[in-house]
Write a structure and sequence with these properties.
Blueprint: H1 35-42, H2 51-79, E1 87-91, H3 98-104, H4 118-125, E2 131-139, E3 143-150, E4 155-159, E5 162-166, E6 172-176, E7 186-187, H5 194-206, H6 209-212, E8 215-220, E9 226-230, E10 235-239, H7 244-256, E11 267-269, E12 277-278
Parallel strand pairs: 1-3, 4-7, 7-8, 10-11
Antiparallel strand pairs: 2-3, 4-5, 5-6, 8-9, 9-10, 11-12
Length: about 280
């Protein structure tokens, strides 16, 4: 039997009866990009990163890695027991025994070489008055070499029954009971005031070692009137401290000049070093 029901039309929600609704096609250029536009966008090329920028980033990364490695190596070296001091060697000692220096430096043994500096070594050697200055040299893996610069004795000063060896600053570096055993001039450290003492020692410190060894004593009535006496009794008139290096060279030349038996020399006057004379 045939269906006699009439077809019915249900309008969509929100649409009044009698109004036709239509959906805009995806290809409609008004509502959005067309298929052709999307196809065009999909064909846009992505340019690679510039080579310069990439290379720069690679270099910076490599440098950062190298710096980190070097820092790690340095830190490891500073604290590594591999570089701990096991041997202390000493050079430059004449007044001092190398053994006494090594004994004073005993505290640095077992300490890594990179942690040791000149100031620390100088502090350990400060009780040894003969030491003027020090420098160190690390010899990996475990040796520390200490270079000593000693004070140089320039005169003898009578002290009771003994004679003290003093340097240009008046520091006592040793003593002897026999002044003839030491080739240094004798100066009066008791009667001379500090200014005269410094004037005399400054002159003696300027003299070459072979000339200093020929001096018997030194004196000064004022800082401008320093006088030296040779072991053979001859006198050196020095004067003041001006141009003392030039005076020392002139005196050395005069002492090396051949002696003339017919004209004996008793006085060498270098107080005016550009016009020295003998008499």
């Amino acid at each position: 039997m045939a269906d006699t029901r009439k077809p019915t039309f249900k309008p969509q929600a929100g649409i009044r009866p009698g109004v036709v609704s239509a959906e805009r096609s995806l290809d409609d250029p008004v509502g959005g990009p067309s298929e052709a536009a999307r196809a065009k966008d999909s064909n846009v090329l992505a340019f690679p990163e510039p080579k310069g920028r990439k290379r720069r980033r690679t270099v910076l990364t490599a440098l950062a890695i190298i710096v980190a490695l070097v820092a790690g190596i340095i830190v490891a070296a500073i604290y590594s027991p591999v570089f701990a001091v096991r041997t202390v060697s000493v050079d430059g000692t004449k007044l001092l025994q190398a053994g006494s220096v090594q004994k004073a430096l005993e505290p640095v043994k077992g300490k890594p070489l990179p942690q040791i500096n000149d100031a620390e070594i100088a502090a350990l050697l400060k009780p040894l008055v003969q030491v003027r200055s020090v420098s160190t040299e690390a010899r990996p893996p475990s040796e520390l070499l200490v270079h000593i610069v000693e004070r140089v004795p320039v005169a003898l000063v009578k002290s009771g029954d003994n004679y003290s060896l003093v340097d240009v600053d008046g520091v006592q570096l040793g003593s002897t009971a026999d002044p003839a055993s030491v080739a240094l001039p004798l100066i009066d450290g008791q009667g001379a005031n500090q200014n005269l003492f410094k004037a005399i020692t400054a002159v003696l410190a300027t003299l070459p070692a072979d000339v200093l060894a020929k001096m018997a004593n030194a004196s000064a009535s004022s800082p401008d009137a320093v006088e030296l006496k040779l072991t053979d009794g001859k006198i050196v008139v020095w004067g003041n401290a001006d141009e003392k290096e030039l005076k020392a060279r002139v005196l050395e030349a005069l002492l090396k000049a051949p002696a003339n038996p017919k004209v004996p020399v008793n006085v060498y006057d270098v107080s005016a070093p550009r016009h020295p004379f003998t008499k």
